[in-house]
Specification:
Helix content: 40-55%
Order of helices and strands: EEEHEEHEHHHHEHEHEEHHHH
Radius of gyration: 21 Å
Strand order of the largest sheet: 6-7-8-3-9-10
CATH class of the largest domain: Alpha Beta
Number of domains: 2
Strand content: 15-25%
CATH superfamily of the largest domain: P-loop containing nucleotide triphosphate hydrolases
Distance between the termini: 44 Å
Structural class: alpha/beta
Number of helices: 12
Length: about 290
Amino acid sequence: MTLLEVRGLQVAYGGVVAVRDVSFAVAPGEVLAVLGANGAGKTTTLMAISGLVRVRAGDIRFDGVSTANDAPTSIARRGIAHVPAGRGLFPSLSVADNLRMGLYGAKRDGTAEGAADIEELLDTFPILRERRDQPAGTMSGGQQQQLVIARALAQRPRLLMLDEMSMGLAPAVVADLFALVADLKSRGIAVVMVEQFVGQALKVADRAIVLEQGSVVASGAPDELSQDDLAAAYLGGGEAPALDVRPAPDRARESLRLSLRGSDVRHLEQVAAERGVPVEQVLEEIIGGAL
């Protein structure tokens, strides 16, 4: 059974085409990882699904019904929840009031059913119960990310879209969030996640698509995607250059100046986060030939 189907999606900002040909399908309880470098069209694809940008061509069908260019409120009430990058909390409101905003969108605020939903979410996210009366803006980044995901879950979505949920968070927090994605999957909630932590995303995903310049360049189960597929998307295509891994003399290291592309910096940050070490240590090991 297909829950979400995207066919030949095209989205443009003025004369600039951000998404030119994206197609994929997601089944209930399936996790799809959407991968690719910055500017590949990942965020725009999610925004098109939730109605935040206009679809220029193609179609989006949810549970068999076309939702392309429907109002965001209508799409949300069909069962699609979107957690955008940057969180978007109400910082002056308490944790509990932020959660109630999710109920309001689902028209269950002030009901016994809605109150039960809040209690269930506080059980799922114990730190939120502990901070329920605290202004959301005073919490840590990881706690805020848990809150924004909980608020989305208050809508009882059948499909949850997560855009860079791990951005800027500590490795331990990131691990907890990916464990949450696995739990949602076991509960039958479909998840589409845009993620730069490729290794961890592929561990929890059932399938993945790789975007490059607004088009799908690779897709399949995690074990079907090759390193070449990922390298082409993140490093601009072509063969990865051969690296001279001979240790550099200490004096050379002290005077070495590197100019790295944004994609290279993100890769270093990803490796460092997955290993729980500083970026500088990873870079030192690369220069010294340890990686």
